[in-house]
Design a protein that fits this description.
globular; 156 residues
């Protein structure tokens, strides 16, 4: 009888611990309490998720990944600095539009950051093949949130 009670107690404690762990991970933030009071440790949740396509000009259909001229990456210019976006050929639907490429910036973008412009960078990593305006200050990274932006680059 003692073994059965011990097993039930351990199972109950494991379920409580699991529920607490899941609740903490679902919140998107870890709140760390130190002698200085609670600190928001959400830097891993602040980044830009970027989708983009490339076209010859504004009136042309977008290229597929295989048709797109070679480029190295997308460079975002924000009010807090410049960030390189990794690239992957992934067809993604976002806000009713289809984009051929996707990538993210590194983490720990300062809260409040917003995209001023984006450049499609040539394979030399220095020359801009195309530039697109950013969505502006009305789209800002929250204290613990990533921000998704999308672009169509015209090579004209």
């Amino acid at each position: 009888m003692t073994t059965n009670l011990t097993t039930k107690l351990r199972t109950g404690l494991l379920l409580v611990f699991t529920a607490m762990t899941m609740a903490a991970s679902l919140s998107g933030c870890i709140i760390e309490t130190t002698s200085g009071g609670p600190k928001n440790n959400c830097a891993q949740d602040r980044y830009f998720q970027v989708y983009w396509s490339v076209a010859a000009d504004a009136s042309s259909p977008t290229y597929t990944c295989n048709q797109t001229p070679a480029f190295s990456h997308v460079q975002l210019l924000t009010n807090t600095g410049s960030y390189e976006v990794g690239k992957a050929c992934i067809a993604t639907s976002y806000m009713g539009f289809l984009f051929d490429f996707a990538g993210t910036t590194d983490y720990a973008i300062p809260a409040g950051s917003y995209v001023i412009s984006a450049d499609l960078m040539a394979t030399d990593g220095v020359t801009s093949l195309s530039s697109a305006p950013g969505p502006g200050s009305q789209y800002q990274i929250g204290s613990c949130d990533p921000l998704t932006v999308a672009f169509t680059f015209d090579l004209n």
